[in-house]
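Chain A, query sequence.
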Amino acid sequence: MDAKPILGPRALAALLGLSALCGLSAAAPAAADDVPPPLEAETSDVAVMPDPAPHRVLLLDVFGGGEARILDGDSGKILGGVSAASLSNVAVGPGQKQIYVAESIWTKGNRGDRQDMVTVYDGKTLNLKTEIAIPGRVFMGPRMQNFALSAGAARGYVYNMTPGSSVVVVDLKADKVERTVELPGCALVFPFGDDGFSSLCGDGSLATVTLGADGPALTRSKPFFNAEADPVFENSPTDRTTGTTLFVTYTGLVHRVTLGATPTFEAPWSLLEAAGFPAPSTSDRDLAWRPGGEQALTYHRASGRLYVLMHPGGHWTHKDAGTEVWCFDVAKHALIKRFKLDKPLDAIAVTQDAEPVLFGVGAENVFYVLKPDSGEVVKTVKRVGGMIYDPAA
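Chain A, predicted structure.
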């Protein structure tokens, strides 16, 4: 005879409780307040960028995060972004109407057929406008002088090395490559006006290319800095409209050059001597204040003020982050002010309006908005990008 299962007291109580709950659930209707409201129908729209603003800034990860981000320096909000492959270079057109990305991709991600191009985005909608195939471009950490625009953005200049140095001139009106200019022994692009650019050469001279109807004309200056002992920062600030460029050396010598078909060179002056210190030597044992950082220099054109990241160190410490910012009157060769930073900065940029703010990037890509007169931090945004591109540059 089969044994029948016998429910213990606890199992029986559990069954009885469950039955009671089920009965209550079935008997009690749901309250009206418990009924969720009907969902609203979703609607789609297309957002556009706000009107151009003087404190807008574009940020790019040094080794690429897949996007160049556009940030409002007043609110700290990210307004949008455009795609940018690893080791891309970015430029912003006049009036922030277009964003240009010089980039390289492969058909299979990290392999396959290589494609080099200048990609153009609408600055308002961020929609892709066109892709202009180019024959090549240099691969290195982002630098504003790897890819630059003429004053009116009629041309784009892409620095290339295959392995000889050259500059690919892109007609941005016709969306095609205009020509490639060979620059043996010279590198980078410092544009002036709509029809020319200069490059730095390994012997300390300046190569100048003017683009005319008969083709490019290339001239070379005499050496104006000691490229072996005291090189200049490759991201020295330049005004592509007037050609005014401030080439600053690792020891803090300022060479003011007016770029053009026939460039002019002013006598150099020392940042350190302007601040009341002796000019530092080129010895790595000579401890002195020195400029340094990934992007150590920025120039406010209307006021003629040069802002420099400074740190104490020996020669060849030009990559060290700045612990102070020094502000100079370029015309008077005089120190206006200096202030200590709460956190060291690797990069700085100043806006070009009448009430400028100072942007900075420090460790872990933390972005800072500072008052240019005191260094007071007014806003902090984490992990938005390492290189600062001033839209008005």
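Residues 51-389 form a domain with the Methylamine Dehydrogenase; Chain H fold (CATH 2.130.10.10). The helical segments are 9-27, 271-274.
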